[in-house]
Amino acid sequence: MKQITTIKEAKQWLKSYQKKSLKIGFVPTMGALHEGHLRLISQSRAENDITICSIFVNPIQFNNPEDLAKYPRNVAQDARLLKNSGCDMLFSPTVEEMYPGDKQENLEMDFGMLDKVMEGKFRPGHFKGVVIVVRKLFNIIAPTHAYFGKKDYQQLMVIRRMNELLGHKVKIVACETVREDDGLAMSSRNLRLTIGERQVARRIFEVLCKVREKGTKTPVWELREWAIKKIQEDSSFRVEYFEIADRETLMPVESWGHKNQVVALTAVFLGDVRLIDNVELFS
Ligand code: PAF
Question: d(Cα 140, Cα 243) in Å, to the nearest integer?
C-alpha cells in the first residue's frame, strides 16, 4: 500500500490510473478505523480497480474544540489495518496541506433544509466543514465511486446533494451500518465510552428497533416522545434529538402518510460522548 501525505504526490500517483479510465473507489475517513470502515474498503475493492482511503481529522467540521482535541488518532495502526485489507493508497495529509495559510473556504451551495435540521441545528457549521473537505478530497482523488456509511445518514444525504450540485461526477455508494454484537453502531467515538457506558450503550439501537416495531400503530408524536423517555429512563443518557423524518428531505414528519420513506434518527449523549444512530422504517 502506498502512503502519501501531499496533494501533489497524490495527484501524480493517480495520473496513470486515470489515464487508463480505471474505476477508482474512495473511502474518506477521519481515522480510528473499525470494522465499519473496513467493510467500506472491502465493498470498494469488490467494485473498483483500485481503492484509496483518506485519513484526515478535519478541524473545520468540529463545532466543539474539545471534541476535536479528544478525537482518537492512530494513523500507524490504521495504516496497518488498511494494508491488511488490501487498500491501494492511503492519503493522510496534514491540516496545513489541506488548508494552507489562513485562506477562508467558501461554500456557495444551497442545501435547503438538509444541512439545517438535526445535526445541522445542533452542530452549527458542521456540514459546511464536511462539504468543503469532501469536495476538496474529491478534487484531489477524482474517484469514480465514493463510499459512505448509513450511520451518518444526514451526512450521506448532504453529500449526495453536493454531488448532484457538482454534476454527479462521482457515484455515491451508501453502505449499511455495521454494528457490534449487542447492536451498538460502530463508531470511532465508542472508544471514548467508559466500561460502564459501553455496557448500556446498546439501549439506543434497542429503542430504535422498538420504534420500527411499533411503527404506524402509534401516532408519530407519541412514538417520538415514548422513544426519548425510554432512552432517558437510564439517567446516563441525554437525548439531544429524536426525529422521524422523510428519508430524502430529512424534514420531520407529523403523520404516517409517508410511511414508505421515513427514517428515525437520534443523537444521544452517553456521559460526555455524543453518539448518533438511525433506522429506516418500513423497508
Ligand atoms: O464521516 C466522516 O468520517 C467524515 O465526516 C468525512 C466524510 C471523512 C469528512 O471529514
Answer: 36
Per CATH, the number for 188-278 is 3.30.1300.10
| d(CA 58, ligand 1 centre) in Å | 8
pTM of the model: 0.96
Q: How far apart are CA 281 and CA 211, in angstroms?
A: 8
Average pLDDT rounded to a whole number, residues 139-162? 98
* DSSP E strand stretches across 12-106: 24-29, 50-55, 89-91
> Where do you find CATH 3.30.1300.10 in the chain?
188-278
244: Cα separation from own chain's centroid: 19
Residue of minimum CA distance from atom 8 in ligand 1: 29
**3 state DSSP class of 179:** strand
* Chain CA centroid to CA 267, Å: 13
**Crossing angle of helices 126-141 and 7-19, rounded to 10°:** 50
